[in-house]
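To the wet lab folks,

You asked to see what we're planning to order before we commit. Fair enough. Below is the target structure as tokens, and below that is the sequence we designed to fit it. If anything looks off to you, flag it before the synthesis order goes out.
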């Protein structure tokens, strides 16, 4: 069982920055791939960024160069640094630990709202 708790969302002006955090329970956090997804109103949930246990990362084309995913295994925490935010980044952002050989199912956080508006 893995519990994920996001924090750090809020209202920011276009061009601004936010850092999201996701704290995970459990002993084996360091071996999990972790991801950030987002869902805007009326749209499907989409992958924003992911980071493997070894630190390899991948990003959606729409955020590449602006967002950075990182992890601190000592703190069981994954981060999403979001810079140069645009109104189209407005969404609920979810932390995810995907089903794998180490996890029997997908795990999701409760979500944190990010609103980019002037």
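Sequence we intend to order:
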């Amino acid at each position: 069982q893995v519990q994920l708790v996001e924090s750090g969302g809020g209202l920011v002006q276009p061009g601004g920055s936010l850092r999201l955090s996701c704290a995970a329970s459990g002993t084996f956090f360091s071996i999990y791939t972790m991801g950030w997804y987002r869902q805007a109103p009326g749209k499907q949930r989409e992958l924003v960024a992911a980071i493997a246990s070894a630190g390899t990362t991948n990003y959606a084309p729409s955020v590449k160069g602006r967002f950075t995913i990182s992890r601190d295994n000592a703190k069981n925490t994954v981060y999403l640094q979001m810079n140069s935010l645009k109104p189209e980044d407005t969404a609920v952002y979810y932390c995810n630990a995907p089903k794998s050989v180490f996890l029997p199912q997908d795990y999701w956080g409760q979500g944190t709202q990010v609103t980019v508006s002037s």
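Structural context that might help your review: The two ends are 40 Å apart (CA to CA). Residues 18 and 82 are 5 Å apart (CA to CA).

Thanks,
Computational group
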